Amino acid sequence: MYPVSELIKNLADQHGRNRHNLLPILQGVVEQEKYLSEYSMIEIARELDLPASEVYGTATFYSFLEYKKMGKYIIRVCKTITCSMKGKNQVLKAIEDMLKISVGETTPDGNFSLLQTNCLGLCHKAPAMLINYDVFTDLTPEKVREILSSYIKKKVKEE
Amino acid sequence: MINLTINNRAIQVEEGTTIFEAAKNHNILIPHFCYMENVHQIGSCRVCVVEVEGAKTLMASCVTAATEGMIVNTNTERVRNVRKVIFELMLSDHPKECLSCWRNQNCELQELGNLIQLHEFRYEGAKSKDIIDSSSPSIVRDSSKCILCRRCVTVCNEIQGVGLMNPHHRGFSTFIGPSEDELLGESICTNCGQCVLVCPVGALKEKDSTSVVWEALYDKTKTVVVQTAPAVRAALGEIFLYEPGTLVTGKMAAALHNLGFDYVFDTNFAADLTIMEEGSEFLERVKNAFTSPEKNAVLPMITSCSPGWIKFVEHRFPEQLANLSSCKSPHMMLGALTKSYFAEKMNIDPASLFVVSVMPCTAKKFEITRPEMFSGGLADVDAVITTRELGRMIKDAGIDFRNLTDGTFDSPLGLSTGAADIFGTTGGVMEAALRTVHELVTGRELPGLNLHIQPLSGLSRIKTAELKIENPLPDFSFLDGITVKVAVTSGLKGAAELLEEIKNGTSPYHFIEIMGCPGGCISGGGQPRPVNDAIRTLRLEAIYREDEGKLLRKSHENEDIMLLYRDFLGAPLGHKSHELLHTVYTPRSKN
Amino acid sequence: MTFGYQLKRADFIFKNENDWKEILRNNLSRPPHEVINELISSELKGRGGAGFPTGLKWKLTAEVVEKTKYVICNADEGEPGTFKDREILTKVPLKVLTAMTVCAHVIGAKEGYIYLRGEYFFLQPELNMAIKEFEDYCREINFEFKIRIFMGSGAYICGEETALFESMEGKRGEPRNKPPFPSTYGYMGKPTVINNVETLAHTFTIFKYGAKRFYDLGVQYSRGSKLFSVSGDTPKPGIYELELGMSLVDFVEEFGDGDTKAVQVGGASGFLVPRKRFVETTIGFQGKLTGISLPTGGSMMLFNSSRSMYNVLDNYLEFFREESCGQCTPCRVGCQQLLNGIKAVKRGEKNAQYLEKLLRLTETMQFTAKCGLGQSVANSFSSIVENFREEMIY
Predict the structure, then answer these.
(1) How far is C180 from chain B (nearest CA, A)?
(2) Average pLDDT, chain C
(3) Does C196 map to a domain?
(4) Which residues 152-211 of chain C have a CB within 8 Å of chain B?
(5) Given phi > 0 = left and psi -120 to 50 = alpha, else beta, which region is B458?
(6) Mean pLDDT score, A28-53
(7) So which residues of B are the catalytic ones?
(8) If we measure between CA atoms, which residue out of C252, C212, C204 comes closest to residue C228?
(9) What is residue B182's DSSP assignment?
(10) pLDDT score of B164 more than 80
(11) Domains identified in chain C, total number
């Protein structure tokens, strides 16, 4: 795990330092750090010789480029119409009850953040959600509790 | 040439002309909003949409090029209806507090409303984020009034190359400004105010200083002194409906006396002074560069009278600060002299003096807060008001500007030569400096017609000239046969280009004039609106007329300046000069 | 009138006979104009939603004299209810890569990209393997064409072609003015062919079987087959390849749950067709209720009588409000006003007449918005409000 500035430098070496390399670099930082801190955005601006305001302006446009501190696992539950029809609200409530946070919040131990997102392209297996990049479909309140438990166990194992 | 039809009229235009321009050139004015000729053209407000036969949707006329055989209608029922709806949408997210807004009667949204004639507000709903950022001494941002036209973004990024203003977030949450939570006062904003100049509404404005000036004027214990920049007199008249390019020097002085200022000085006096100091500084560096290399004289030397430019170079090229002349800007010099030379001469306690500068500039409001601009514990200048603010004060005081009898500036800081006037326009400082420097070096006048240097005039972004020195005076024999190369630029993008050359060691110049605003002070952030190249040219010509109309045209001929040196300062670059008239710079971070 | 036209299944897209190498070699040795003419005569139209004739698109881009050109596969599938591109990239990616390469040969491009939406990150490992296998073969047959994946980051608007270019150039995904069109001014300002994943998969079918085989499917103006993503109140959610030109009655008979109240054809930017109109609606490029354009991407969402159309519209408007790029006034403020408006009517804060004003607003958006997002809001808004007015109020 590198400190952020070294990570940024490596990403810039890997992708390039032109304006059109900005998005992969932002994504690279989010992949590791889970969000773009003010510091990292200024570092990226410095590395690519761009005004900081432009890096901010670009990053804040995209839903998956978080700029507020996020937990280790970001849960994104789809709220578009089919998932909504197939029981997204019960699934969401199950998550909220289990993790004791509402949508938009992060658990105090920094493990989970809960967000809603738009159509994930898994409508025939609705309701669906992402945890970081992993896909979970055909959700029910029980199933989602199982999934979260396995993540919690995984975290405990790592510690 | 392209043939098209607009509103049943057959017209012919050059290839590449947009529908909007084609219409305008034939006296058909399409209501528009975000479009600003030669500045901003992105087709996002959608007010200027027109019907184009065969097109699936209405087309934005400011970005759609005319094509052969195109049939355009600008006033069909559908077009007029959608314009109303779009205007309503813009208003639905606007506070509509016109009566207390400082842009009342001078606002492009109001003008559009006049054209569109809306009679009901159908949509009212959510309002965007509302922040008032008054952290900067120069510019205040009120996001509740922002219409998201993005002109400020274009000006700050593409025209000035500073890159502070940007859209953030997405959709209805879109927000224009510096980065999240960043305040103007703590950012890389150079305070040039070009964004204020192009903002169609009251979302961006200069910080108001008229209230402190009124306060000082009412304060019987204070002696209030005012000075005016050269660019003000060429544009102030526009606020009182004079044609752009009308010089109103006399009326301006009279109005200032009328407002109650105790002494009305002319910044031009200090401009002449700046030439003396800066000219001498330049010659000293040149002499050292040629004869005493161990002194490491830094060339090219760059002018330092533009505080927007100064903040820019402090952020962007902090390693090149030694290239800047150490001279303060003219109005700071005059302020410092007022509280020393003038105070002594008139036996006034300097602490009771209140100096006000009327400037075409928003950056000068920041400049006077710099810690270096204090001498003996007192601020050199106490307040800066823009040309627009002066206009408001004159109206507020009920002065009938157009019917004033011409007034004059006061002594001993009111006399100036023509060289001082041209400080207001791009190329002027360089020309003024060379008028003096050339004579100091060769003993002869500048060879150009009317003492002008042709290649340095006009509105091109970067202008260069060469001056071959032949048969110089004995003191400057080392310059015999040397070609002095100078460059002039206005606007910060040109500045960055020239600084990159210096940074890379490839700059061929000895002396560079840089002004922060495109066109120079005549289109500074504090000048009357609108500003475009046609108006810049008219103001520029007015300034040159004032210069050519004067008997004395070279700074070193100014008798009051010579008195100043004899009685007070000693010699240029002397000890007293360094104390009062020179300054230092602060390296700042890039982001 | 296509009453009684039965649903005709087709099986070209997902049938994998592992013959991509052969198809690639054959088509790389054909002169470009021959390939273009074949596509034109097949009458293949874009399957992403805009329905632009593919052959014409390749032709226009090929004709531009320019050294640098690009081929981009638009895999930013984001229209609600659409999930077919994901399936294509999972099951038959090599067909798409082959199509992209033939396109490169035809227009003269050396670089290609797949713009993959961020939500499909999990497809990357396998897709990268397919690309590697593909590139190894290209090297074998000495054809220079580099394909890379460019990841999106969660913005539906980046599915719009010019917004996609902006995103790839490291900027905010805000659509550009058109004209100029991508065939002359695309990615990095260079001539670019940008095609939907499914469109490219169909070109593979055409290269394999010839234009006539494709042309013989479907109906006039709507040739060929299309993938339909079916979801909602249906016992058979999934992806189905069907010939174009089918009647909605037949579709609902096959996929409905017996109680279908309405079908959303084309996702949130498409039209809601109520039961009484099933009979007169055909799915194709010149269908009556569906307007000129094919339902965006083929998303078909079925709603039975337990569903509230108010909730459906509310859901769509929330979607648009969040995904609007915010650049132009009609869409940025319009989406917000529409959402607030229907909520106000439902709560009784505004009377039913207000719905008329909102309809006027969507008309304005349809004709003045800068890109397809703002222009299409009117489709679902007007079709839902006009057909289910009572549900908006009570």
Answers:
(1) 9
(2) 92
(3) yes
(4) 155, 172, 177, 179
(5) left
(6) 93
(7) 278, 281, 305, 325, 364, 367, 372, 521
(8) C252
(9) -
(10) yes
(11) 3
With contact defined as 3+ CB pairs under 8 Å, the chains touching B are A, C
Q: Are residues C101 and C194 in the same domain?
A: yes
Q: What's the pLDDT score for residue B180?
A: 77
Q: What is the ipTM of this complex?
A: 0.95
Query: Is the Cβ of B16 closer than 8 Å to some Cβ of chain C?
Result: no
CATH code of the domain covering residue C235 = 3.10.20.600
A interface with B, Cβ–Cβ below 8 Å: 38, 41-42, 45-46, 50-54, 56-57, 60-61, 67
Contacts of B186 in chain A (CB under 8 A): none
Q: What is the mean pLDDT of residues B583-591?
A: 89
Mutate to test the interface with C, among B74, B86, B154 (most CBs of C within 10 A): B86
With bands split at pLDDT 50, 70 and 90, how would you rate the model's confidence at C3? Answer: very low
Number of helical (H) and strand (E) elements in chain C, helices listed first = 15, 11
CA B212 to CA B381: how far, in whole Å? Answer: 13
Cβ neighbours of A38 in B, within 8 Å: 179-180
Residues C363, C295, single domain; the answer is no
Contact present, B179 and B213 (Cβ < 8 Å): no
- pLDDT at residue C290 in the model: 44
> pLDDT by residue (tens digit) across A129-150?
999 999 999 999 999 999 999 9
pLDDT the model gives residue C296: 52
User: Do residues C280 and C320 both lie within one domain?
Assistant: no
Closest residue of B to C175, CA-based? B44
Domain membership of residue C209 as a residue range: 20-215
Cα torsion C24, C26, C30, C34: sign: negative
Do C64 and C204 fall within a single domain? Answer: yes
Is C271 contained in some domain?
A: yes
Number of helices and strands in chain B (H, E): 21, 20
Give the integer Cα–Cα distance in Å for C334 and C362.
8
Query: B416 is written with which tokens?
Result: 């100036």
Cβ contact, residue pair A121, C268, below 8 Å: no
Q: Tens of pLDDT along B472-483?
A: 999 888 889 999
Q: Which of C238, C271, C304 is the last residue of a domain?
A: C304
The reply to whether residue A123 touches residue C170, judged by beta carbons under 8 angstroms, is no
Q: What is the pLDDT of residues B496-541, one digit of tens each?
A: 999 999 999 999 999 999 999 999 999 999 999 999 999 999 999 9
CB distance C307 to C120 below 8 Å: no
C-alpha B426/C-alpha B539 separation (Å) is: 11
* pTM for this prediction: 0.94
The answer to whether B182 contacts chain A (CB < 8 Å) is yes
Lowest mean pLDDT among B76-80, B361-365, C243-247, C374-378: C243-247
**Residue B386 backbone dihedrals phi, psi, to 5 degrees:** -80, 170
Q: Indicate the residue of A24, A123, A133 with minimum beta-carbon distance to C231.
A: A123
Nearest CA in chain C to B33: C329
- Does residue C358 share a domain with residue C222? no
User: What is the CATH classification number for the domain harbouring C313?
Assistant: 1.20.1440.230
CATH number of the domain that residue C110 is part of: 3.40.50.11540
Beta carbons of C337 and B63 less than 8 Å apart: no
3-state secondary structure of C147: strand
* Alpha-carbon gap, residue B198 to C30, rounded angstroms: 56
Determine the Cα–Cα distance for residues C351 and B441; give it in Å rounded to an integer. 84
Residues 35-54, chain B, touching C (beta carbon < 8 A): 42-47, 49
Q: Give the percent of chain B with pLDDT over 70.
A: 100
Considering C304, C319, C336, which residue would you say is the last residue of a domain?
Answer: C304
Report yes or no on C15 lying in a domain.
no
How far C319 CA lies from chain A's nearest CA (Å)? Answer: 7
Distance from CA of B188 to the nearest CA of A (A): 9
Q: Using DSSP bridges, classify how beta strands C260-265 and C299-304 pair: parallel, antiparallel or unpaired.
A: antiparallel
pLDDT digits (tens, 9 = 90+) for C327-348: 999 999 999 999 999 999 999 9
> Is A56 in contact with B168 (Cβ distance < 8 A)?
yes
Task: Clarify whether residues C129 and C60 are in a common domain.
Answer: yes
